[in-house]
Amino acid sequence: MTTVSIFGKGNMGQAIGKNFEAAGNNVSYIQSDSPKSELGDIVILAVPYPAIRSIIEGYKEALSGKIIIDITNPVNFDTFDELVVPADSSAAAQIATLLPDAKVVKGFNTTFGATLETKKVANQQQTTVLLAGDNQDAKSTIGNALEGSGLAVIDAGSLKRARELEAMGFLQISLAAAEKISWTGGFGVFR
Amino acid sequence: MTTVSIFGKGNMGQAIGKNFEAAGNNVSYIQSDSPKSELGDIVILAVPYPAIRSIIEGYKEALSGKIIIDITNPVNFDTFDELVVPADSSAAAQIATLLPDAKVVKGFNTTFGATLETKKVANQQQTTVLLAGDNQDAKSTIGNALEGSGLAVIDAGSLKRARELEAMGFLQISLAAAEKISWTGGFGVFR
């Protein structure tokens, strides 16, 4: 059993939390009015990207050494035409720079909330969580913790691949926003 | 019926050509030793990215005004860890800059050759061609020309989205190269 702390209890936070719970882990949520508490082995940042900096400032010491999953898609919601992070970087890489002692892993940003709830994309293809991070043990710990959740997990490589995962997440959101796909559909992964 | 000229007759060029032929279009291939000839309504650049510049130099006038489909994934094959185009741009955008009078569309870079042959990803989900380009008529012409091919086509937005399509193509290639997925699988699109 792994302890999991999730910042944010929106659609994504809850859908992710249910999966970790289904796999037998101990999940707790931290909201903006929560009292300061210990953090679990895995910490999930399930808040919009602009909210992350204040979490890091408020929990900097507690986050040190933790496995941190960044699920954000740092879309510029004013233009809906680009990301707000540098084009050769990623939200996850920016977070890793702010938290050099943490093990930052990108994940859950290419899976719509509905597909985490049903464990299927478009009720057809098993939902796959793509992980990118430089710490192999951290990715293994996440993968092991999700065993039995009903989700598939694939190691997508180093933290540099977070750039590509975020591009894919942005593309998927823009397709759904344009009603080319539905929010229950999107990209399924086939091995 | 649309006339289609395909530069390159490798796996991708042939798989794409068969789809246009199956949909009733007139397809011809141009290889490096081909004599200069007229180009069709749709021109497909199905060569590795580094080979495109010499095609543009050799056919600059003939390409003017044409619908051009860029299928490349401009991966840095030395490092296999980044793309060779600027991070905020794309191969398609670079080509559009070199050919300002052409209607450049990104497409077929997120579909492995095998999935174009079988029209299915992992023999399960219909293969979808994602198109990005600034000229709506060009994208419609391509979509109409592929009707009856067995492929699905989705307009993924403006040419700026080629950045995201190329990131997704790179990610898919890197997953297959790492044997996390097979070359007959990859990303399926679910509406």
UniProtKB/TrEMBL annotation, chains A, B:
Molecular function via GO: oxidoreductase activity
Domain Pyrroline-5-carboxylate reductase catalytic N-terminal residue range list: 40-74
Domain of life: Bacteria
TM regions (residue ranges): none
Alphabetical UniProt keywords: Oxidoreductase
Keyword Oxidoreductase: yes
PANTHER family per the UniProt record, alphabetical: DUDULIN-RELATED, REDUCTASE
Name by which UniProt lists this protein: Pyrroline-5-carboxylate reductase catalytic N-terminal domain-containing protein
Species the sequence originates in: Enterococcus phoeniculicola ATCC BAA-412
